[in-house]
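Quick question, first post here. What does this chain look like in 3D?
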Amino acid sequence: MAAHPEGTPCWADAMFSDVEGAKSFYGDVLGWTFGESSSEYGNYTQAYADGKAVAAVVPPMPGQEGQSAWCLYFASADVNATATRIRDHGGEVLMEPMRVGEFGSMLLARSPDGVVFGVWQAGAHQGFEAMGVPGAYVWAEIYTREPEKSDTFFPAVFSFRAKQMDDPGNPQMDFRVFELGQGPLLGRMKMTAEDFPPEVPSYINVYFTVPDCDDAVARATKLGGVLRFGPMDTPFGRFAALSDPQGASFSVIDVTNTKGEMPALSDVD
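> Answer (accepted):
Ran it through. Tokens below.
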């Protein structure tokens, strides 16, 4: 399997104080199975959808306990060069580039508007083995209170092109799409005070595919998850935003259940 092209979302993981609880929750909601935890790498445990690696869960490192959150990783051919670009454009490298055995190299960073993300240079571990199938990652959106900062930073670091979504029915919505050669890769939504309490920081929201959005929501809420938004029909699929029992935000989407016309996108200079 070829490495993911530079700048594309290529992996997602999350730290959970209760890893077994997280495995039980996501196993039921997304149908994940789990491999053996790797004690050599902090009990990092991969999740699989239909036998394909799609994500991972891990307990927090000592001193890192706190709010659980999903972290999206972008592919890089050279994490050291990416770290330089991150700093050059006002970002902060939270975890310096480090080698993870034969699997690859990584770093963790924060954009000028506070969005935490990862960068992965593939070795033996190429990243997602499946995307867009039930249980797998399919999409992500940057939620930020300062969109102008994300709009400058991420294209500078990863060479994204940007398009603005035109929605005459909702002129207040500020939504942008970042693209590379193969089309849309990532969304960017402006967080509003009406929809997001001030204590919610800017973040990247990951979407996982499910065969039935309403069924996934029912499973999640029965297990202690919280429905934040939806389910809602869109031209991209029927989706809902959730938080798991440990507070990590994510979304589920049934990409086969689409309604409405695709919104127009206009190029951004």
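Residues 19-30 form the longest helix (12 residues).
DSSP finds four helices and 17 strands in the chain.
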